[in-house]
Amino acid sequence: MKNKNNFALIILNLIIFFILCYALLQNGIWRGHDWLAHFQRLISLNEELDAQQFPPLFNYWLPGQFGYSWQLFYPPLTSFLFLLARIITFNSTDNILQMKIVLFIIFVIAFICAFYAGKREHNSSAAGYLCTILFITSGYFLTNIFIRFALGEMLAMAFMPLFLRGCSSLLGDRRDIWLIPFSALAIALSNMPSLIVTAIFFLLFFIINIKRLINRINIRFFLESLICFMALSAFYWIPLLYHMRHSDIFATHAKLLSYEDVFRFSSGIMENLFSLPSKYGVSNHGMYLSVGVIQLLIAIGYLRYGRSAPAKKVILVALFFILAATHLLPWYLLPDRFSFLKIMQFPWRLLSCATAIVALFTSGMLAGIWQRRPLAILLMAALCIASMFFPMNQALTERHTRLEHMGLWDDYLNNSNIREDNFAHLYNNDFAYFANKNASITTTGYTDGYPDMIITVRGEQTVTLPYIMYAGYYLLVDDKKTDVSRLDNGLVGVKLTAGEHRVSLLYERNIVVVPMMVSIISFFIISFIIIFRHRRVIRIRMFSQRFLPF
Known about the structure:
InterPro entries: Uncharacterised_YfhO. The protein is of the alpha+beta class.
């Protein structure tokens, strides 16, 4: 597609980017539904690194955390951004500054991914700029940032256009099919529910294009992609599965919603279609659970005026996702034993994919209109930019310069911790409720980030330690390796004889380190294969140009 001067579109993209950055440049930061959880993750990682705990897994320093682990369970890509922000700020103690840098990086990633996907899909820079405008100004993307503070999901959503471009490339030039495994990997390492959304889309995409996708070349590609995905993410999913099996974690067992609950979290149809603040159902109110009014109208218009039949099919999938996010889809009819979809938790998470679909596949049509009627496109972009005010308003006017009290989050506790009598005391940092009256515990320091204690015991007994029980823990008691005791309250216990004992809590690091080595070795092997194949393609092309000029 031949491009008109795109200077105006570049300016519009810069305006949107500066509006987002304006929210970062103000004093303090906005609060959102998950803001304290992500600040707690950031602070925990910093404290673990300061204590030279490797790998950084357990937080023994933040009051009331009892060795709580975010790093073992939460997808790690945002933690890598925390680490990058820590490096950029030279180990600054300003957690708000570090979080702002993380948000800035996510904004940059979202712009780059949307632009690249749009440009490659339509061979047009104008389409790339327009894809970015539609994607970034959508109600749901801005809600993830400024209302939900859903750090992992906003990062996963930023990669969604790349995954869609990879899928589209399967049906066309195949230039970007490599995006499928690597963007899926980025999404999985950002937010697991978003990976389920991606899987649902790919299943529907495969079904509606099954005749074109079923061939030997694609089957081989899918298998290679799966191997690549599993190998590169082994450092995350192998320890995760281990702890799902042995640690009895609340988030992976008892906290899974039923489909009745999933249905109750649906959004209202009017709120969805007209991008109104949410009031329907049991979801937190005030969210904009919509792709955006302008974006929705463009998607419907594409079904009438768009030229690509495959794109129309995908647009229909987006419209299905939009309706499935509302109470119109009876999620409660699904059997609870079919637990795969429940990992998504909230049906309106489908909007992350629907938004990317609309932005990517309609941007080519808009680029064509830009050539003929630029004022119409400028008006559309102005309306999209104006709509940003509603999700951002509260974030710009209500700022916080100090973090509130950070309690104990229930997600990654074990099911014994979560019992009402136990959790109430843990949440209030009341270890005295669990402590043995005939044993005194004095923390003497930390070795490689793990606590050392002196425990004085009056009479032989099982002593309760102030740490949450996770599989893989073991103890050194007077320099002798000792198994931990699983206590009914979900904390770590140790059997001791009368007297004074030196006790150290340790973790079997190979549970994490070995899968990490698998991923690192896989990275180098896959990189070598990619480079080798790329050079072979270049040599074949050079040979063809030299000996087969026709």
